[in-house]
Structures are given as C-alpha cells and as structure tokens.
Amino acid sequence: MPTTYRRMHHDDLDGPSWDGPRRDARRRILICSTPRSGSYLLCRQMINAGLGLPTEYLRHATRTALSERWSIEAGDDAAYFDEVEARRTSVNGVFAAKVQWGHYQRHRGLRERWLDRADLIVFLYRHDLIAQAVSWQVSLATGLWSFDDTPGPRAADVTLEPSEFTLRLAAILREHNRAWNALIVESGRPALAVRYETYVGAQADLLRELARRVGLGDGDWTVPPAEERDNRLPAEVEEARVRLLAHARNAAVAQAPA
Known about the structure:
Elements: E1 27-33, H1 39-49, H2 60-69, H3 77-87, E2 94-100, H4 101-106, H5 109-115, E3 120-125, H6 129-142, H7 165-187, E4 191-195, H8 196-199, H9 203-213, H10 235-255
Parallel strand pairs: 1-2, 1-3, 3-4
Helix pairs in contact: 6-7, 6-10
C-alpha cells in the first residue's frame, strides 16, 4: 500500500510506470462522472489509498498512448478493455476506471465490459451546476484542467466573456446526470451517489465506504491524507471566473419561472 501521497496530473497516469503485470480483477469500481465534478480528486485519492488505478481510460489522449504502448489496433475496443483491466488492476485485485457520459456514447461496449460487471458504481455529481458549468467554461477557454498549470485541450470558440453559454453548459451537465442516473438504475448494479460538495469535506469517509462496499479489509488499503483545495488560476482568470459565476447566477434567476 502507498506510504507517501502522490499528487499526480492525469496525463502522468498515461505513463508506463503505472503499468503492472497482468492480473485478474477480483473487484471492479466504476466512477461515472461529468466534467469538473471533482472526479480526478477522487481518482488520486483512490490511487493513494490502493483502491485501483482509476483514470479516464477512454479519454482520447489516454487511449492513444496506452494502445500504442500495448500494440492494440485503433478501434479494437474489446482488446483495449481487456488490456486496461489486466495492466491496471492493483495488487489487491481492484480495477477502477472513470468514465464521462460522452465516453459511453462513443464506446457502448463499456456497458457490458465495465458497467454491468461493476461491484460498485460511484456516481459523482456536483449539486451546484452553475459553478460546475463555470469551471468547465474556464477550462475550455484556458486549457487549465487540473491543480497545476499543465496545458490541456482548449476550445477555440469558447471565451471567458459572460454569455448564455454558461447556462447551456449547465443544461448539458444536467442532462448527462439524468442519463447516468437512468443507466445506472437500468444496470441493476450496486451504486453509490456521491455529492462533490460533501465529498471534498470528508474524503476519507468516502474511501472507507468504497473499501467496505467491495469487501476490502483494513490491511488491503490505507487512508491517505485529504487534499487541500489548490486554486492555481492566474489572477486575471480567477477574476473572469468570478464575473462568469455572478452573471450566470443572475441569468438563472431571471430565467426561473415566476
């Protein structure tokens, strides 16, 4: 089990140092999430706890890197699912992965391979959809997606100017949450709905619940320290975020039924 907390960027998890010998998964945890829901915080905490090696394995950059290293042909979902599970199962037999709704839409095979075989599905959602939408917009506009300044993908047509775009993102998040809820209920698998706002204040409590739900004993994992909030947005971006949030909240009130 880990003894030193590692705060890794999600790009780092694509590297070969995280590949293990082929193992059979005895417990499977699937994190179902939406953008800017705190899901990579949960991934880092789980990795440090020894609860699998979750990341967005169906993210394009991740899939490309792993498929090339493992000699998997592009588009061969079945082979990729097999290899990810075998190479990224932790020593205590836990396989964990994180998926966004868009991943499911593009890779329906993940339902049979991961969702319908999950010992536990964790549905991570954010109660404050407007704040989540603002965070998503900031990341799309700036390419800042993590706790550090590692550059990520940007959307050329997204800006930090207040507009109706923020509420459109909130509507997308609301729809993706509904879709996840319906699919999880349909799957019939054991599930745990986790509100981000509660989780960040009680990180160890959730890890204990995950370990309990999949039948891990105290010696099979460890409780890592909680991560403190670390906002490294440049000052001008933080100012723009505050403006976006205020504008979107006022717009939501104005659009609410009387």
